[in-house]
Amino acid sequence: MESEWLMRGVSRQVFLAVLLVMAVSPATAAPYRICIDPGHGGDDSGAVGCGLRESDVVLDVALRLRELIAADASLIPLMTRQDDVGVGLQARCDYANDSAADRFVSIHANAFDGTVSGIETYCARTASPLSFDQRDRIQDGMVTLWPDLPDRGGKVADFHVLVHTAMPASLSELAFVDYCATDAALLADPEERQRAAEVHHRALRASLGLGEQPSDPSEEGVLRGTVFEDQGVGVEDMSLRLTGALVRVRPSGADSGEWLDEASATGIDADWRFSLPAGEYVVQASRDGYEPNQRSCEVTAGDTRWCSLGLLLLPVISPEERDVAHGDIGESLGDIGAADPLDAIIHDEPSGARDRLPADAHAEGDSIVGRESASPGDYASADFVTDDKDPDPPDPPDPMDGVGDGCATGRSSSGGSGWALLLFSVLICLLLRATGWRATVGARVAGVALPAVLLLASGGCKAAGGDGDAERSFAGHPPRPLTLDSRLAPAGVKRFVSASEGAAWQITELARVTPDEGFVQPVWSPDDSHLAVARAGFGELYTLPPSGGDMRLVSRGVGVGREPVWRDAETLDLRAPGQRLSDIPALAVDLDGRRASPPVNPHPGLWLRVREDEVYERTRGVERRISPAGDRYCCARRSKDGRKVTFQGLSSGVFVYDRREGCTISLGPGQQARLSPCGERVAFARHHDDGRQITGAELSVAVLDGCVAVVHPLTGTPDIARNPGFAGDGERLAFDDMESIWVGRLAPAPVQVGH
Fold first, then answer.
1. Which pLDDT band holds residue 21 (cuts at 50, 70, 90)?
2. Distance CA 389, CA 623 (A)
3. What's the gap between Cα 634 and its chain centre?
4. Is 137 helix (H, G, I), strand (E, B) or coil?
5. Taking Cα atoms as reference points, which of 682, 723, 724 lies closest to residue 702?
6. pLDDT attached to residue 211
7. Mean pLDDT of 410-427
8. Which residues are designated catalytic?
């Protein structure tokens, strides 16, 4: 009893300490995220000359720039590569887009024939004024730094990393590595590389407007945001809006009681708004039953800055404990600055610009949300567990237990042939075991892969309302042997399995469905009646029927086209700028672009988190890493039923994590993995590039069964096929060729019979 009383006392003290820390924690505006992209790497050395390799030179400049940005409180560095490894162009774009970077700066060096010298900097032809401004500031700075080199000017080119990133982007060609007299001598000098990094740092700051005061401090700007219940993951899930919360604002440095203005968080989004003179302000939100929260936000003349606040539920404690915890802190308790994906400075711009925002961040007509610079914060909790300390902690209650996956499980077969095939496959497995083959790796594969393939022949998991074409069989081609790694993978990964390569499938009934070019990333509606597609650069979101026809503009604004989520056939949930693909979308619109009710977490108590380039799954306070060691990861997506996760390594390719089996499966090189509605298949693309442009991309489909996957290459597609997406029936596939959207049907490829 005494020990129990002692533990309760310790728990109380820890809890009170947490409250006090929260009460005095400073709140600051979220810094900007800068994605630094050193060109080439690994087997691709880039330009070579005068004893220099482009990949080495630009990596050194990029690492120096990273250190400068890391020491800058206003900026956060992100790196597409940080050592001499190969990272494909599409993986670089995926990483930058998923990280919700505010700016992208790619660093290269030139070469020709040893007779050309000079400096040039690029942005995309269709880029917005922010990209041009970033390009010109870098070019001017480099020309000033190295005045003996010719100024080859700011140029435009549709390099892949400039067109397919969702933020202002530039590509620097520092100098020519094969012009030994001047250019190469500068590139070889560590001090000059340091100065080049400093030029890029200053140019980025200036382009972002950091350190510059408005010409007229009295000119007003807008401060606005939303109030939501913080569920322990900050802005990664803002689905619980707190309508009616009181929001107050005062100038930074003013007495805590001198509130300048107040408003109520109203409407379905629980949003609020103040028009204020330029300057720094403290914003506080409060509501009965929640800890008040406040943060500092800056108002810029003529712009709109988002400053949303999350409130923590008040714990149930005794009056005596509450008196001790609160003391004289009063309403400042809970002063913790949650990073905010709606914490944006929004710039007016012409309609259609790729990486600038309309003046209003919420959906009003065609406009949805503006540039955002937030960085999701990490929250500590008493039951927070990481697998670095415990390689196999006990699993918390599964929020998915007892929840259906939303897919009809009936098999579309005549006379029960699907079950007959499954029974036949089980008998084959038993026979193999009886003959002693079970000790081999091949038997282990056959014991799982064969039932999966035969079950697929019976129609697989068919979505409700699907057609009879789901009965198509992709069986008949035995997979090659599968290599199993019995070693425990790091932190929460029970097993690590490599997929085998199966026989090819093909795309039939292929049709181009977009009337114009420049559309990417198709996403099927739940009833398969529409596709949501984005313009390259993700600044515009459209819908159209999968058979082609009239396209409807739904929304325009930076990043609105980054993988929207169909809530139903009439509503699209959109991630605000600053949110990852794994975050719960923060905004929603109907097909006319009108604001809809806020999105909700489809799997309460379950979240994906990408932190420090590792993928974690969080279940009611327990967090475990699901990405293997040895790479950096992005682009985590969950299946509709919540039981599978796909993510990609920048160098290693596509992975699938199965929550039920507790294993992570490697599908090999690839990007842009998409799960079928029932999670039994994964489609993904494998890109090839020359360091500047994508030269080819082919699709593959992996069939999953537990911890085994069989990968089937797809034939019958254009030379470039990417961004695949499954229809609800699991049989049709939409994809893009970087210009147009295509729709086709999966079918077994003809078997080649030898002579």
1. very low
2. 12
3. 6
4. helix
5. 682
6. 61
7. 43
8. 173
- Distance (Å, rounded) from C-alpha 103 to C-alpha 58? 18
Say if residues 155 and 149 touch (Cβ distance below 8 Å): no
Closest CA to 726 of 714, 735, 718: 735
- DSSP codes joined into one string, 516-563: SS-EEEEEE-TTSS-EEEEETTS-EEEEE-TT----EEEEESTTTTSS
Burial class (CB in 10 A: 0-12, 13-18, 19+), 386: middle
What pLDDT does 257 receive?
73
Q: How far is CA 588 from CA 73, 385, 647, in A?
A: 32, 33, 24
Judge contact between 640 and 405, C-beta under 8 A. yes
CA separation, residue 279 to residues 221, 296, 385, 554 (Å): 9, 11, 41, 35
Say which residue the tokens 């398969």 belong to.
528
Q: Locate tokens 């992208």: which residue?
A: 104
* Strand (E) or helix (H) holding 326: helix 319-326
SS3 call for 23: helix
CB 548 within 8 A of CB 513: yes
Count the helix, strand and coil residues of the chain and give each as a percent rounded to the nearest 5: 20, 30, 45
* Helices vs strands, H then E, count in the chain: 10, 42
Distance CA 59, CA 64 (A): 9
> Per-residue pLDDT tens for 75-106?
999 999 999 999 999 999 999 999 999 999 99
Average pLDDT, the chain: 77
Residue 119, Cβ density class (10 Å: 0-12 exposed, 13-18 middle, ≥19 buried): buried
Residue 553 pLDDT greater than 70, yes or no: yes
Please give the backbone phi and psi of residue 186, each rounded to the nearest 5 degrees, phi first.
-70, -45
Query: What's the rounded Cα separation, in Å, for the pair 97 and 672?
Result: 12
Whether 552 has a pLDDT exceeding 90, the answer reads: yes
pLDDT of residue 431: 47
CB atoms within 10 A of CB 217: 10
Please tell me the distance from the alpha carbon of residue 285 to that of residue 711, in angstroms, as a whole number: 51
d(CA 431, CA 423): 12
Q: Which amino acid is at 456?
A: L
- What letter does residue 290 receive in the DSSP assignment? B
Alpha-carbon 561 to chain mean position: 12
* Model pTM score: 0.74
Where residue 14 falls among pLDDT bands split at 50, 70, 90?
Answer: very low
**Contact partners, residue 687, CB within 8 Å, separation at least 6:** 88, 89, 90, 91, 671, 694, 696, 697, 722
